[in-house]
Amino acid sequence: MKSRTFFLLLLVCPLVVCAQNLYSPGGDHYERMSKETYDTACICVFYDLRFLKDSTKTTDYTECQTVLLISDKYTSFGDYNRILLDSVNDYLAESKKNAKDKIAREQWDSFISKWKYNIVTMNDLAAGKSKVQIYDILRSYEYTFDTPDMEWTLVEGDTIINQMPCRKATGSYAGRQYVAWYAESLPLPYGPYVFGGLPGLILQLHDTKYNWIFTNTRVGKAVEHKDMYLYRNKFVEPIIHTTRREALEAYRNDIENFDNLSIDVFKVKVMQNGRWVSPEANRLKRPSNLLELVW
Q1: Which conformational region is residue 222 in: left (phi greater than 0), alpha (psi within -120 to 50 degrees), or beta?
Q2: Rounded CA separation 55/222 (Å)
Q3: Within the chain, which residues score under 70 in pLDDT?
Q4: Rounded to the nearest 5 degrees, what angle is found at the Cα of 292, between the Cα atoms of 291 and 295?
Q5: What CA–CA distance (Å, rounded) separates 292 from 271?
Q6: Cα dihedral sign, 243-244-249-255
Q7: Percent helix, strand and coil across the chain, each rounded to 5?
Q8: Helices assigned H by DSSP within the chain
Q9: pLDDT (tens digit, 9 = 90+) per residue, 110-162?
Q10: Do the beta carbons of residue 107 and residue 95 sit within 8 Å?
Q11: CA angle at residue 262 from 261 to 263, to 5 degrees?
Q12: Alpha-carbon gap, residue 263 to 261, rounded angstroms
């Protein structure tokens, strides 16, 4: 029983260490993130995102704040607290004095605890290409694919979201059926992630089983944190450049087999018969519920 408990602790502890060291390997030493900036946003659109990591636990939502940045050439989408984390991290990395800034360090801890959506997307509007970077604790992936040309059906229905009249549309993407509410008063054919193509900005989007729900909270002129960027070489972990299929298959496998894969990645050891050894990788799979069910 003690060995099993210790094994579980070792599985959990690397996550804590990893979270603390995402950007600061030395504790008081912060390293500036290497990024590639594509453009500067002129509009930002915030969405509250609620999603189920396990589709069978229908009330156990993970919640976070995401943001869609829009320029003339690109849209980018990701977790807003990741952007805030990058900003304060780069401040802390500027000098030893900054690295000891108590308020900034507290902000760093707060932002990293609120960062829940581990995908960053850059959509090239002219080329019709989307570049996606994913981080899943174990590994980071990057792939590029054709931005999906969504086939929407405009249907009867209207509602008010953030005091703006919205019309209804239905469509499908990657194995899920979706309902979208868009505002014709905001003639921007965009939405969260890679969703778009409607005659107005998407203010709410959810699949018909309510596994993934994006709800707009505000729209406005981009004032700060306007840089639209992806990471160079490393998105927490070194980036593996691959195809969309291989990245999503690996991402799903990393989630489902985390307990087994982490044994090797985190060099987990348990005490058996007076020796430290690697435990057997035979733990049950965790559930996964990616936004894409098929690819």
Answers
A1: beta
A2: 35
A3: 1-27
A4: 170
A5: 40
A6: positive
A7: 25, 40, 35
A8: 2-20, 80-93, 96-99, 102-114, 244-256, 258-265
A9: 999 999 999 999 999 999 999 999 998 899 999 999 999 999 999 999 999 99
A10: no
A11: 90
A12: 5
> Residue 75 in contact with residue 69, Cβ under 8 Å?
yes
Contact 61, 52 (CB under 8 A): yes
Yes or no: say if 193 and 205 are a contact pair by the CB < 8 Å rule: no
Question: Could you tell me the CA-to-CA distances from 170 to 13, 77, 190, 195, 268 in Å, in that order?
Answer: 44, 21, 15, 12, 47
pLDDT digits (tens, 9 = 90+) for 262-283: 998 888 888 888 898 888 888 9
Count CB atoms within 10 A of the CB of residue 52: 19
Q: How far is CA 153 from the centre of its chain?
A: 28
- Residue type, position 43, single letter: I
Coil, strand or helix at 25? coil
The number of angstroms, rounded, from the C-alpha of 251 to the middle of its chain's C-alpha atoms is 12
| Alpha-carbon span 80 to 243, nearest angstrom | 26
